[in-house]
Amino acid sequence: MLRNKLRNGIIQLIQYILFRCLCFLLNLFPFSWALKLGKLGGRALYYLLGYYRRIALENLNFVFGTEKNEKEIKKIAVQSFENLGYFAIEFIRIPKIVKNLKKYVIIKNKDSVLKALELKKGVILIVSHFGNWEWMGVAAGVEARQRGVKINAIARVFGNPFLYHYAVSNLRGFPNLRNEKTGITGTSFLSAMTAGSEVVHAVRPK
Fold this sequence. Notes:
The protein is an alpha/beta fold.
């Protein structure tokens, strides 16, 4: 048991070191170049990850049926993997992006949230998995802190603790994080709200 735990810990540490090295190398490139590499990486994963490729194709065939032919279905699937490559690069670049956030993120309808905050009953933000949801969360956090609003994030912990800590503290940049081992529930939100948070942001790592 102890040996397995030690072995897993070493593997997780190696994964973390390799990821940090990859982040360092990708940050040496201009953003546009890094995005091109991300696109190539995503396309490569389409061909390398057979299990996920089959799931993507099955789902697309289920959605479109006879509306699109096999070639069109494959094109959409490949583009989906390419988008994941873009997403990975954008996620890694968050520390740089956040320094000039207005260049990359436009927040619309913020008045609705501000009016809700005036009621002093708290606000819950749930980021959808659409576009770059990581940028959405970071932008919301930056906007809240600039206005002096206390914001907490709730997240489900994922496997590698080294990667998790780096992703949350260094990349996502959430100063107040509540970890949920079994998932995010209504109780999680209520607990954070009663603890005095004005805004609670749900983070759902895969």
